[in-house]
Amino acid sequence: MKLTGITVAAIALTFSGFVSAEAPAAGDVEKGKEIAAGICAGCHNPDGNSAIPIYPILAGQYPGYLAKQLHDFKAAEGETAKRDNQIMAPMAATLSEDDIANLAAFYSQQKPQSGPVTDASLVKAGERLYQGGNLENSIPACSSCHSPDGQGIPPHYPKINGQHPGYTLSQLQAFRQGTRKNDTNSAMQTIVSRMSEQEMKAVSEYIATLK
Ligand code: HEC
Ligand code: HEC
Question: Which of 160, 179, 196 to mutate to test the pocket of ligand 2 (most atoms within 8 A of CB)?
Fold first, then answer.
């Protein structure tokens, strides 16, 4: 068979389709920027450095993780979304595959700023748990998956450093309540089921200090 330009492109497309679960096709940053400015900036700020603690900072996050979240917010007919959130569900519902890839590319290339610590008295306790875990209650060190500096390990373990403490705490609670169940092998759901409210608060404050 003689490979024409079109067959080569078709093979490349099929192949990138397989790979997309791991690493999505590189998106178009300029197109992503346009959608972000039009729909997302009101909450996440134009560069993804949201100023309000309930809205996560998206700047500098891995594109594969961002794309996965935007998919997980979408609910299939008659089912609850794996990440069930009333604010993001309608946002994600309007996005095409290309839009998602473009937005993920745009945000991943923005320079992240840190959200402010809200209770400095908890930072030390948070550091102990993050870096060392809690052996007594079988809580693993967060650093083992999210790395000691919170930079994460792509594509599965997100970057969490510098995030608003309020948002981080809300996600730990969501994993506990089961409104967020999009973590592979229920890793996060298992861990938070062993954590106290105080531990969740403390580790959220510490994470904001990581760079
Ligand atoms: C009205 C406010 C609002 C708008 C507009 C909005 N978001 Fe969000 N976004 C949120 C909230 C709130 C959350 C946290 C949801 C949760 O708790 O699960 C969130 C979470 C996210 C997350 C998950 C981040 C993470 O670290 O897991 C991504 C990705 C995201 N938004 C992207 C977008 C994109 C892209 C747009 C535009 C198409 C957008 N958002 C528009 C409020 C908003
Ligand atoms: C065994 C690996 C593992 C360990 C240990 C782990 N995590 Fe995670 N964590 C994950 C995975 C996987 C995800 C992404 C889930 C997804 O795809 O949405 C995640 C997501 C998160 C998120 C959501 C980030 C966002 O932007 O919404 C937070 C916050 C978080 N982890 C905090 C922690 C804390 C705090 C600890 C320690 C108490 C911890 N993690 C330990 C695997 C782990």
Answer: 160
pLDDT digits (tens, 9 = 90+) for 131-145: 999 999 999 999 999
| Residue in 163, 176, 137 with CA at minimum distance from that of residue 65 | 163
Cα 41 from chain centre: 17
Tell me, yes or no, whether 8 lies in a domain: no
Record the pTM.
0.91
For residue 102 and ligand 1, the question of a CB distance below 6 A is answered with: no
Is the shortest distance between the CB of 70 and ligand 1 below 6 Å?
Answer: yes
DSSP H helical ranges for 97-162 = 97-108, 123-132, 143-146
- Tell me how crowded residue 84 is: count the other CB atoms within 10 A of its CB: 19
Structural domain range at position 84: 26-108
Among protein residues, the one whose CA lies closest to atom 2 of ligand 2: 145
Task: Classify residue 3: in a domain, yes or no.
Answer: no
205 and 124 fall within a common domain:
yes
CATH classification at residue 172: 1.10.760.10
